[in-house]
Design brief:
This protein has about 90 residues and is an alpha+beta fold. It has one domain: Orthogonal Bundle (Arc Repressor Mutant, subunit A). The protein is about 55% helix and about 15% strand. It is built from five helices and three strands, in the order ααβααββα. The protein has a three-stranded antiparallel beta sheet. The longest helix has 13 residues.
Length: about 90
C-alpha cells in the first residue's frame, strides 16, 4: 500500500512538488514532524509559501496541526496512505 500511495502522489491534483516530497517523506516516517520554518529552509521558499503548502495539506486531511508553544507543528495523519489512495481515485497513471 505504501508504494502505491507514493506513486499516487504524482497524480493527485493540486499538489506541488514540495507537497509531494513532504508527503512521500511522511509515508516513510509516520512519526515525522514538520514546521513552516523547516519547510521554508528545506525548499528555499518564503514563509508564506511554506505556510500555504502545509495548510493546504492539513486542509486536505493529510497532515494534522497542533500548536507547540508559539509554533505550529504538523504531523502525518494516522491514515495518510489510505487518504492518499482515496484522493487518487479516478486518476490515470
Amino acid at each position: 500500500m505504501l508504494a502505491a500511495a507514493e506513486r499516487r502522489l504524482r497524480g493527485i491534483e493540486g499538489l506541488n512538488h514540495r507537497q509531494q516530497g513532504l508527503l512521500a517523506d511522511a509515508l516513510r516516517n509516520a512519526g515525522a514532524r514538520y514546521t513552516i520554518e523547516g519547510h521554508k529552509r528545506t525548499h528555499g521558499v518564503v514563509y508564506q509559501t511554506a505556510r500555504s503548502d502545509l495548510l493546504v495539506l492539513e486542509g486536505r486531511g493529510f497532515l494534522k496541526a497542533e500548536k507547540t508553544g508559539r509554533f505550529m507543528v504538523f504531523r502525518p495523519s494516522e491514515d495518510l496512505a489510505k487518504r492518499l489512495d482515496e484522493s487518487g481515485h479516478g486518476i490515470s497513471g
